[in-house]
Design goal:
Helix content is about 50%, strand content about 15%. With about 120 residues, the chain is of the alpha+beta class. It has one domain. Strands 2-3-1-4 form a four-stranded mixed beta sheet, covered by helices on one side. Helix 3 runs antiparallel to helix 4. The two termini are about 30 Å apart.
Length: about 120
């Protein structure tokens, strides 16, 4: 089954289908929020479906990490870092070339023309 779990804790853990995200809150593993990202309904060889999965991962990461208090820059920065790391880890653990390419384009880590060429 294609499933990953985003779970907020103080460090990264990957065990089976569980994906653990770095979060700033000091919670015990049992108390940490988690969001399961299902993708059995998607084909990771289809660029549209890859985009759908990426948006699900983004939403799950934002749910787990939160947005931080708008009045406190440090909280917003920590939430953004948590979200970025959760997305990176989720993409890495799924190990799909098309999803990785999508991630690299979205994050600006790959030239857009090279990424588009690889999808053709």
């Amino acid at each position: 089954m294609n499933t990953r779990t985003l779970k907020g804790t103080s460090k990264w853990l990957i065990a089976g289908a569980m994906l653990t995200a770095v979060c700033t809150t000091a919670m015990a593993n049992d108390e940490a929020p988690r969001v399961v990202v299902h993708y059995t309904d998607l084909s990771l060889s289809n660029s549209h479906d890859v985009g759908v999965l990426y948006r699900r991962i983004e939403k799950a990461a934002a749910t787990v990490c939160g947005a931080g208090d708008a009045e406190y820059l440090a909280q917003k920065v920590a939430a953004k870092k948590c979200i970025d790391q959760a997305i990176e880890q989720a993409v890495s653990s799924i190990n799909s070339p098309m999803l990785t390419n999508h991630y690299l384009v979205k994050t600006g880590a790959a030239p857009k023309d090279a990424a588009v060429a690889s999808l053709r």
